[in-house]
Design goal:
Length: about 425
């Protein structure tokens, strides 16, 4: 599309304009890709993994914002060179055009989303606030699309206009279908409600949800849903929580650690609360297994999907081992259940306790080999906080486990 419209010339204003067209088209296409990655298409999330999609989305967002900035700067320089004026007067002149004012507003919205998603600021912003600002992406994308329709690259031909419009329509339909229609349809079909809330430890609770025909969801151990509890101050936010037990008797169970306002309110849920659950998502399932022996390595509340896998992964005596990393014994969650499963299945269970800055690292390669001498022959399922997951992956590779046999999902809020 860009090449068809490009005008070969050595004039400075034309060179700037040509660069502006290319970066603008790339930015517009990049926005579509970012929205598609977060459309929650089950085939994509199951095949790639929701955590990997989220990281790709975050990295791609930086490129898109850089392309938007480059597009604006090149267009401004091109106009200033063509009109033989300075950048300030060129900016004021361009903002007088309605189409460019719309583009500026869209870029500002996307920039606001990018700023609140920056790692340094993200830690200081409540998750609910971040999600509210992130919704501006849709408005920013719509304004960007309106601006693109006024440019020669898209509107210059019937084929290009039709193709560009079809791409946007496809992504819009996927977003509406999987983020709005599917959750509502599942809520009406399965009528999910909270039937119990149980304390599991300091700041940790398990929530049991029951519905009609829950087996139809085909949720597998290791997967997660995005949960929305329909009560005051909770209904507006959906967060991903893994199943902490296999589906049985039309019930689903999640185990949640208080990490923000939303998760702290979950412990005050009452039986009968209606629930919207979208999913299941995630690729950390038995389908990834390639070896007879399996090591499950969990850190903190990352024990929840590991506990479900610990109970259900096929295996004989000695085939399964669970390592549970925590700061202290008081921080262990679902301990009685884990020990009962280990006894019943004759599986290995080890608690790796202690502060992460201690002189002895329980996740060091030699320490792992001492616990599991044939570690290199195992598949490894890993779930925990980002720092712990990164350190564990490095240690496992150094201990001889091929990286393609380390199956991990990592979420942080």
């Amino acid at each position: 599309m860009w090449a068809v419209q490009a005008e070969p010339s050595a004039r400075l204003d034309v060179l700037f304009a040509t660069g502006a067209h290319l970066t603008g088209l790339l930015a517009g296409y990049g926005i579509l890709v970012m929205l598609f990655l977060m459309a929650r298409v089950p085939a994509v999330e199951h095949g790639v993994g929701a955590d990997r999609l989220a990281r790709t989305h975050a990295l791609g967002g930086r490129y898109v914002l850089s392309l938007c900035a480059a597009h604006a700067l090149l267009a401004l320089c091109g106009y200033a060179a063509h009109a033989d004026t300075d950048l300030l007067h060129a900016t004021l002149d361009l903002l007088g055009y309605p189409g460019l004012a719309v583009a500026t507003a869209g870029t500002a919205l996307l920039a606001a989303v990018g700023v609140t998603s920056a790692r340094a600021l993200r830690r200081r912003v409540r998750h609910e606030t971040w999600r509210a600002v992130h919704l501006l992406t849709y408005l920013g994308a719509a304004l960007a699309f309106a601006h693109q329709l006024a440019g020669p690259d898209v509107a210059g031909g019937v084929l290009s206009l039709g193709l560009w419009s079809l791409l946007h329509a496809t992504v819009a339909v996927l977003l509406v279908w999987y983020r709005v229609v599917v959750p509502v349809r599942q809520a009406l079909r399965h009528s999910l409600r909270v039937i119990g809330v149980r304390d599991e430890g300091p700041g940790v609770v398990s929530v049991v949800v029951q519905g009609i025909g829950v087996d139809e969801l085909r949720a597998e151990p290791g997967q997660f849903f995005r949960w929305r509890f329909l009560r005051r101050r909770l209904w507006h936010t959906a967060l991903p929580f893994s199943l902490s037990a296999p589906v049985r008797d039309d019930t689903l169970r999640i185990t949640v650690k208080a990490a923000g306002d939303h998760t702290r309110r979950i412990r005050r849920l009452r039986p009968g609360t209606r629930v919207l659950a979208t999913g299941p998502f995630g690729a950390l399932t038995a389908h990834r297994r390639t070896r007879r022996k399996v090591l499950l390595l969990a850190g903190g509340v990352g024990i929840t999907p590991m506990r479900a896998l610990f109970e259900t992964l096929p295996g004989g005596p000695g085939d399964l081992t669970l390592l549970y990393r925590a700061g202290s014994a008081e921080q262990l969650v679902l301990r009685e259940e884990l020990e009962a499963i280990a006894r019943t299945r004759q599986a290995g269970l080890h608690y790796l306790l202690g502060r992460s800055d201690a002189s002895f690292d329980p996740l060091a390669p030699q320490a792992l080999r001492n616990l599991i001498p044939d570690l290199a022959d195992h598949d490894v399922y890993l779930c925990g906080p980002p720092g712990m997951s990164a350190a564990a992956t490095t240690a496992l590779v150094r201990a001889g486990v091929p990286e393609d046999r380390i199956h991990a999902e990592c979420f942080t809020f």
